[in-house]
């Protein structure tokens, strides 16, 4: 394991997290830690992935980004087992389906901003134990102020106000982390996976597929593999898109 690149992905049992795990474990030289709120779902995902990629190296970690005790226990577990993290992909998030008003704001920001910040900060010491650490925040083009204010952009028309606000806040957090960590050799990225099949919008096929408009999550999964493999290091500190190069903040 000491020779493997250790990649930790939050929210790894479905959607973009699952696809990214699959893209990474299909290649030699990586070990992926599937960090999941529900370890049963994590273990099911691990079993499915190993059926498809029997040479893959995978482990499951219980981690709820909204629970400080869970975060602390996860850090201790990874410290004891691996001693470092080479790439940290902060992917867990929500649109707080079925809520509205203050509850929707609170739940959205709790996972997408507060949870993302607290779990990332907790794992930074383990990233600093890596020779080539990389940190990726899974954002969205919907959080780009530049795209939102450009009325000719397809990203301008979408509603989802609470989600957009949370991703804009996440982008600012990413910029701040980049400035703080660039002198410590940590390459920090924000990344938009685009509209892909995901339970982020709900559980029904219509919601998962965004009424048939959603693409294959393996596309951003492979793009994230390029990032953790160091093939996009020259773009550190930027807001990358799986489909369109670099987005404006």
TrEMBL record:
InterPro entries: Fungal_SecMetab_SDRs, NAD(P)-bd_dom_sf, SDR_fam. Belongs to the short-chain dehydrogenases/reductases (SDR) family. Pfam families: adh_short (PF00106). Gene3D superfamilies: NAD(P)-binding Rossmann-like Domain. It comes from the Eukaryota. One of its GO terms (cellular component) is cytoplasm. It comes from Penicillium diatomitis. GO terms for biological process: secondary metabolic process. GO terms for molecular function: oxidoreductase activity. This is Uncharacterized protein. PANTHER family: CHAIN DEHYDROGENASE, PUTATIVE (AFU_ORTHOLOGUE AFUA_5G01530)-RELATED, SHORT-CHAIN DEHYDROGENASE/REDUCTASE.
């Amino acid at each position: 394991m000491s020779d493997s690149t250790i990649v930790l992905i939050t929210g790894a049992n479905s959607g973009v997290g699952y696809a990214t795990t699959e893209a990474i474990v299909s290649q030699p030289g990586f070990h992926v830690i599937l960090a999941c709120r529900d370890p049963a779902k994590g273990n099911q995902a691990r079993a499915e992935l190993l059926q498809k990629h029997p040479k893959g190296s995978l482990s499951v970690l219980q981690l709820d980004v909204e629970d400080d005790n869970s975060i602390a226990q996860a850090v201790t577990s990874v410290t004891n087992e691996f001693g470092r993290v080479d790439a940290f992909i902060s992917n867990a998030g929500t649109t707080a389906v079925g809520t509205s008003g203050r509850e929707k704001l609170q739940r959205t920001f709790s996972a997408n901003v507060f949870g993302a910040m607290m779990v990332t900060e907790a794992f930074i010491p383990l990233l600093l134990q890596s020779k080539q650490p990389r940190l990726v925040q899974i954002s969205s083009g919907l959080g780009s102020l530049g795209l939102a204010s450009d009325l000719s952009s397809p990203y301008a028309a979408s509603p989802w106000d609470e989600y957009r606000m949370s991703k804009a806040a996440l982008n600012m957090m990413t910029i701040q982390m980049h400035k703080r960590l660039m002198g410590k050799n940590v390459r920090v990225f924000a990344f938009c996976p685009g509209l892909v099949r995901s339970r982020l919008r709900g559980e029904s096929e219509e919601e998962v597929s965004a009424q048939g408009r959603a693409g294959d999550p393996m596309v951003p999964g492979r793009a994230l593999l390029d990032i953790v493999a160091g093939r996009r290091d020259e773009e550190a500190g930027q807001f990358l898109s799986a489909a369109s190069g670099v987005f404006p903040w």
